[in-house]
Amino acid sequence: MNKYIFFEIIDYSLMRFPKWVSLAIEKVDNNAAFIFVYMYKYKKSTADLSWLPENATVINLYGNVTNVKDVFQNNKDAKLISFAIRPPEFYIVNQANSFGIKSYVVQHGIFIPFMKREWNYFFMEARKMFYYFKSIFALSHTNKEIGAFHLFKELYRIYIAGNKRISESIFREFDILPQRAFVYSNYWADYFKENYGFKKEQFSLVGMPDLEGFNEIISNTKEEAVCYICQTLVEDGRLAKKEFISFISVLSGLLDASVKVYIKLHPRTDIKLYKELTKRKKTVIIKDKLPNCTKYIGHYSTLLSLPLNITGNVFLWSFQGHVIPNYFKETARIESGEKEDLEAFLNLREACPPEKDILEYYFNKPGLKPFEQIALLINE
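and the corresponding structure tokens:
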């Protein structure tokens, strides 16, 4: 059997990239066996793992990353696939590399260099922070020359103060990086080099999963409508609830009653935050495919890469203290936090073609099949 070990922090996350990559591998490897490892169960909702391949084992580490040693000890011929470079992955990858296991990381989204947090974020995410510290403490025991105190200071500088990159940190004294990285585009290869310390030869450019449905969407008739793309800013403790509801109230007040509005939900969206929009007669809530609309509104969600390839008529509403990255600002029609600018955008009538060359540099070409490519490359 060809064994593939997938790691995520919570079981709920197994339903996304680990699912899509494993199902792609299953199509190209008839002798595949899968081991899905996670740190702890997500309390806010139940993970649906009914999609698991037939030859699959699920392992809960119960919050202790050191429990992964037994997994690697018993599966030294496996391949490890992770989806981020965070403190738990520092330890997981370090141990996989020490056992001689081939390790890979799959880019799972687009990243904000330093993301604003509300004061209550660390209370909301206390459990996650606790496991981050436990992971760093475990990592410190793999190198007796560097104490845990020094690593905790680096953790503060990287994740709280935001004034240091992993590539510049003492963590590079540990073997924490996967041997190969599957990233979206040239821009993200540069990002991984500068922020994490990867080398050029470690990259494979596979395209962006969010753009995979591009051809299907543009084959549908374009609607004279507005689509708002949800982002879990309040739900994740990155924005005050009052500030977000104020924005939704502004948006709702500017929309003519005759305008059709789509609300594209995030899997963890709290729909109660959108009360002012959902009470409109011409509001449609969607969970799956993005509609083909004349206008889109969002903030800095990964999914914005798709409408930016469909039309240049994308408005980015910026909240105070939130930095919208250049890869969105340079490709959207308007970026503003002013009511007057949003009103002007909603009244636009002319089309605005997307900036294809810039978009390709940031996000790669639309319509590629990233998961199929990853499955084939892992099995080279």
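(Above: one complete record from the training split.) Residues 214-363 form a domain with the Rossmann fold fold (CATH 3.40.50.2000).
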